[in-house]
Write a structure and sequence with these properties.
The chain has 138 residues and is of the alpha/beta class. Helices cover 45% and strands 15% of the residues.
Length: 138
């Protein structure tokens, strides 16, 4: 499957290790992840050379082309919220994951869209299990 992985970049990178674990698991399962580079600890430097318009055009095209979107939403991000809304509008299934005990926007937790699944996790293995279950159910 073509999976769009969405996570915070400019909003904070404290969850970078979980981003890397998620991307690694998706790739190991044979999925295409056009946003795999977002899990790179040097993403801010990598993206610094790309214009805002290029990022927008590229990312919208990737959301349009994906089979599903998986978002790690423990760290608030305008971009991640935008990508989630876009994917749902396009009829893409979306999984929003967050670390247990984190406060997550009510725009996510209150959303009862049938294409949206939300789940909290305790550790990296728990996050990967939730992702596997989500993809299996598609």
């Amino acid at each position: 499957m073509n999976i769009y992985f969405s996570c915070s970049i400019t909003g904070g990178r404290e969850d970078q290790a979980i981003y890397a674990a998620i991307v690694e698991a998706l790739l190991a399962q044979g999925h295409l992840v056009p946003t795999a580079h977002l899990s790179n600890p040097d993403i801010l430097a990598l993206e610094a050379v790309v214009s805002p318009n290029e990022v927008y055009q590229r990312d919208v095209a990737w959301v349009n082309g994906c089979d599903a979107l998986i978002a790690e939403v423990s760290t608030p991000s305008h971009g991640v919220g935008y990508e989630i809304a876009l994917a749902l509008t396009l009829g893409k299934p979306v999984l929003c994951l967050y670390r247990r005990g984190r406060r997550v926007s009510k725009m996510i937790t209150g959303n009862d869209h049938p294409g949206l699944r939300q789940a909290d996790y305790g550790d990296q293995a728990g996050a990967v299990t939730l992702i596997c279950d989500f993809l299996h159910d598609l």
